Task: structure prediction
Amino acid sequence: MVILKYKGVEYNNLKISEDGRIFNNKRELKTSTSSNGRLGIVIKPKDLDYKPIFISVHLANYESHKGSFDSSKFHVHHIDKNPLNNHIENLMLLTIDEHIEIHKNDIVKGYEHKNSKLTKEDVDFIRKNYIQRHPEFGREPLAKMFKVSLGTIKNVLSKK
Result:
């Protein structure tokens, strides 16, 4: 285990293991998950003038074990693409362009997205039957028919 470093700051009271577990005096700290699925811990500074800090485990683990990096030019990538696997052997530094290239096909859009209200059949129906400004098959009636926004209908029609 090594002293935890994050964004150039050493947290002498915290240690981080190779598998990304964070300890304070031999007690493992509980992690939470951010909105983008990354694990982290929240540090509450003793000085109440400062807001709590969310420390991303994968970034802290990389920086603590391998050294600092310029986050405006580089990203820390999970080799197995599992954001919960923060073992140092699963982390590698990439340029932002390299990272985008690796993940460009990971983004799920349209009816394939898990939260989509429309099925493939719905999308096909909308594209096949849309008639501009039609009282039954215009944008507004289709949005009401499928209980989605006008923006969703517009995206379906423009194949986004």
Notes: The chain has five helices and nine strands. The chain has a mean pLDDT of 90. The domain at 2-103 is CATH 3.90.75.20 (Homing Intron 3 (I-Ppo) Encoded Endonuclease; Chain A).
